[in-house]
Amino acid sequence: MSKPKHIVAVASGKGGVGKSTVTMNLAAALSKQGLAVGLLDADIYGPSQQRMLGIAEDVRPGQQDERYLLPIEAHGIKSMSMGYLTTERTPMVWRGPMASGALQQMLEQTLWGELDILLVDMPPGTGDIQLTLTQKAAIAGAVIVTTPQDIALLDARKGIEMFAKVQVPILGIVENMAVHVCSACGHEEAIFGADGGRLLAQQYGVAVLASLPLSLAVREAADQGMPLVHGAPESAAAQSFMTAADSLWSALQHTQPEAAPVITMGDD
User: Fold this and answer.
1) What is the pLDDT of residues 92-103, one digit of tens each?
2) Is 118 within 8 Å of 38 (Cβ atoms)?
3) What is the reported pLDDT for 263?
4) How many CA atoms lie within 13 A of 3 on its CB side?
5) Cα separation of 244 and 250, whole Å?
6) Alpha-carbon separation of residue 152 from 59, 121, 122, 146, 147 (angstroms)
């Protein structure tokens, strides 16, 4: 495939923590800083980046030489997703090897061109898709997205430990939905608990890239297909995404991508 300078997996371990929203806004923030950015939606069973990027359901990627796919561009981001190859009403009733094959095709047969960074929006869990990506690509590092909730942190730890097993460094943690600020009175409330992401980062000796609020504006922008950093660039959440993008890009300057590891299975 085309050779992005850096490939970064954005993972969560658990679904429902806002990983895809964070990935899309990180990609938009990096693009806004003048970088060439790609976004690969690796969630084969539940792709969402097409909707979040505001790309119509009937848009399909172009082809070259009847083999290669041309990424679809929106908001300065080149993207590829299973959502472009199916419809919103088409479930992927596939076994693991078929999903892994689809990921490999999108990864290796998309003509990304020259990219500074390719963000990979990972599905929840630690299964076939995660192993396929780490086997087939030289991953510069991973970003873990979690909420401060104890249940989310349990799965985030599993994600961190999985990447450790395949020699992929953790570039940082994004704590999402950290606090809710009442739009009427300004009262702050930690609905999902406090400091969970910070304590997890301390435990593993990694940085907190951002602590993001539980924000109605973030949800509305994603549903409307508009990255918040474009739709409301002065908002606190948008500024947090920009700061996270700065921190991520800075961390990548000190990280050399390893060769793709050989995965072995054991009892531990």
Assistant:
1) 788 888 989 999
2) yes
3) 52
4) 3
5) 10
6) 35, 17, 16, 6, 6
Quick check: helix, strand or coil at residue 29?
helix
Structural domain includes residue 122: yes
Q: Is residue 169 part of a domain?
A: yes
Q: Which of 262, 259, 212 is nearest to 237 (CA)?
A: 212
**Count of the separate structural domains present in the chain:** 1
User: Would you say the C-alpha torsion 41, 246, 215, 160 has a positive or negative sign?
Assistant: positive
* Beta-sheet strand order (sheet of 37-41): 72-74, 77-81, 37-41, 117-121, 6-11, 141-146, 170-175, 208-211
Cα distance between residue 64 and residue 45, in whole Å = 26
Distance CA(5)–CA(45), nearest Å, equals: 28
d(CA 22, CA 19): 5
Tell me which residue of 251, 246, 250, 205 sits closest to 32, measured CA to CA.
246
Q: Which pair of tokens denotes residue 183?
A: 């739009």
The CATH number that applies at residue 166 is: 3.40.50.300
Single-letter amino acid, residue 207: A
pLDDT digit string (tens) for 13-37? 788 899 999 999 999 999 999 999 9
Length of the chain (residues) = 268
State how far the Cα of 26 lies from the Cα of 252, in Å rounded to an integer. 14
- What is the C-alpha separation between 76 and 155, in angstroms, rounded? 32
- Which token pair is 108? 């290796």
Integer Cα distance of 29 and 66 in angstroms: 33
Note down the domain range covering 112. Answer: 6-252
171 in a structural domain: yes
Is residue 183 included in any domain, yes or no? yes
